[in-house]
Structure formats: structure tokens, C-alpha cells
């Protein structure tokens, strides 16, 4: 039996580190500290949920499961990750636009990154849900292809921080207790 290695938690950590360490913004809205606190309050439960789902599914996938059980587990994992990503995106949207240079662009960047992550999980869920379970080798090959695609899409969803560099927000993310 093959196993599916869900490395989503590790990739989430990389995305979160990138988002938290290199952001910038502008506009009328919450202060950089208040916005950073809201963002971290939104991302912390998201990261925990993704990690929990990934760990649980990995345990289930390394156990002796049938393709039907594996399919059910993976569909549930990816649906949960999709839902958690949407919840985080919505909460960051509700946080508003930080009062700093390029705040709207930064806020949009966070939301867009989470939208792409959400959609990648949704596509993975749909792909695996559509796989037949009658031929285990073909099923697990399909699972591996879906996970490979998910990983590529996940990597591509990272926030492009090359043009964003707000010392105010970096400092805020470093200082607010919600981000520790």
C-alpha cells in the first residue's frame, strides 16, 4: 500500500513566515499593531487546524486503509483545509486595511494568497473525490498526482513580498503578543 505524504503543514509554516516577516501597507484603517494582531489572530487557528488535519490524515494514510477509506480521509482533509483557509481569509478581510503605506495592497495580498490556498485545497478535494477506487494502484497514482498539483499550487500562492517592505508592519508583527 502506498502512503500519501501531506506536507501541507510545513508549507503553511513557510507561507506564514513569509507573510509575517515581509509585509507592507497603506491607507486609513487600523494601526499597524492592531492590524498585525488581527492577522495573527486569524492565522493562528488556521495554521493549527491545517496542522491537525494533516497529522490526522497522515496517520490514517500510513495505516492499512483501503482506497475507499483513504479517499474518504483525504476528501475530509482537503475540505477541512479549504474551509479553514476561507475562514482565515474572511477574518483578515474583516481586519480592514492597515494604516500604512500600501495598506490596501498588503491586505489584498494576504486575502489573495489565502484565496489561492483555499482554491488549491478545493481542487485537490474535487480531484480525489472523482477518483475511482476499483484499482488501488491507479487510485494511489491519482492521489499522488493530486497532492503534487496541490503542492505546486500551494507554492505558487505565496504572497509576493518583493515590492512590499513596511518597517511599521514588520515591527508590529514582531511586537504584538498575538504573533508570538
Describe this structure in words.
- Helix content is 72%, strand content 0%.
- It is built from six helices and no strands.
- The protein has helices at 8-21, 32-62, 67-94, 103-129, 136-156, 167-175.
- Helix 2 packs antiparallel against helix 3 and helix 3 packs antiparallel against helix 4 (103-129).
- The longest helix has 31 residues, at 32-62.
Features:
180 residues; mainly alpha; 6 helices; 72% helix; disordered N terminus
How is the secondary structure organized here?
Layout: H1 8-21, H2 32-62, H3 67-94, H4 103-129, H5 136-156, H6 167-175
Helix pairs in contact: 1-2, 2-3, 2-6, 3-4, 4-5
How much is the radius of gyration in Å?
A: 18 Å
**Low-confidence parts, pLDDT < 50 over ≥5 residues?**
1-27
Work out the helix count: 6
Shape: elongated
Strand content: under 5%
Roughly what is the average pLDDT, rounded to an integer? Answer: 83
Head-to-tail CA distance between termini: 40 Å
Structural class: mainly alpha
Biggest beta sheet attributes = none
How much helix, percentage-wise, in residues?
Answer: over 70%
* SSE pattern, N- to C-terminal: HHHHHH
| Count of strand segments | 0
Short description:
This protein has helices at 8-21, 32-62, 67-94, 103-129, 136-156, 167-175. It is mostly helical.
